[in-house]
């Protein structure tokens, strides 16, 4: 499916030149990433605080939101239609216009974006949540593989990722040092992110510092050869929410909206033997369409890579490889420092949008993935147009 694109225009976008076809991110909030939350699996306890915070930040109430869309998984919650209970975090009165996707909240944001492009509303809130600690995540993720010939074997998600990493190592596409450097950089960057689950290294006196190196990480034992613990995103409970607005409504809610200038998602084959696992064709295609083939001006990118080697794959697929000095990759620490299922992709877009809104980046890229081994990929390009 080709997404509706917002044509890039030269110069700054102002309240006088904006049109109802222009859509922007105006607000973002996420819960702290934690190993285990003492809450129910419907996400309500995680969502109420971030909804209240985003209302406060934007100076609105729930009545100002025209459309709601959520991303989660019944498999994670252990019951059918579990997302319905999460609506308790919104409130039942007055009635709301609401929808749901059975995947990461980034795809809920895409549906909300399309809703705004139709002109049916000028505001929308997309959210995602996941309580990964409620069950055996490595086993549960087997259910997203091919239901006929793969899922019945219950393949461990770490074993599948290890197979992908080994293919790249044997082909000489990356090495263990490059993988460890991704993890070390992520942990150093996460020191500045209060929502991160892991950050830096802990000194004997308990203080957290950014003194972590690839060499230190490589000294650790293997967990799922060739993966060490630092190569794997942690099991995480968490949630995130993003508010979208179109036209002048965006300027009414935010001084410097993060305008969506490209938005695309594409899926690869579910057959693990039907694609080259050392590449991400759907990420490359989504990135090509979302950026128009032009990554110039992108100064930061938040990539949803749950394993270190997958960041290397994505950087190459999106044309960001070799641009480490020009593009800050996952300055929030990324999913390796906190990876709430069905919210981590939305967090990547949210952090990219926040950088634009705060003036830290003129043009940023947010990426989300779903399915086994980078099967499905979504790319969102955000522009300050200042």
Secondary-structure content class: alpha/beta
Largest sheet: 10 strands, mixed
The CA-CA distance between the termini, in Å, is 30 Å
**Low-pLDDT stretches:** 1-10
Mean of pLDDT: 91
What's the number of helices? 12
Instruction: Give the spatial strand order of the biggest sheet.
Output: 3-2-4-9-1-10-14-13-11-12
Q: What's the overall geometry? A: globular
Oligomer: single chain
What would you say this structure looks like, in words?
- The protein is α/β, with parallel strands linked by helices and 386 residues long.
- It has helices at residues 44-58, 74-77, 83-86, 105-117, 137-140, 157-170, 176-190, 214-218, 247-253, 281-291, 308-317, 344-357; strands at 23-30, 68-71, 98-101, 123-131, 201-202, 208-209, 222-224, 227-228, 237-246, 258-267, 300-302, 328-329, 363-370, 376-383.
- The strands form 3 sheets. A 10-stranded mixed sheet has the order 3-2-4-9-1-10-14-13-11-12, with helices on both faces. Strands 5-6 form a two-stranded antiparallel sheet. It has a two-stranded antiparallel ribbon with strand order 7-8.
- Strand 5 (201-202) and strand 6 (208-209) form a beta hairpin.
- The longest helix has 15 residues, at 44-58.
- The model is unreliable at 1-10 (pLDDT under 50).
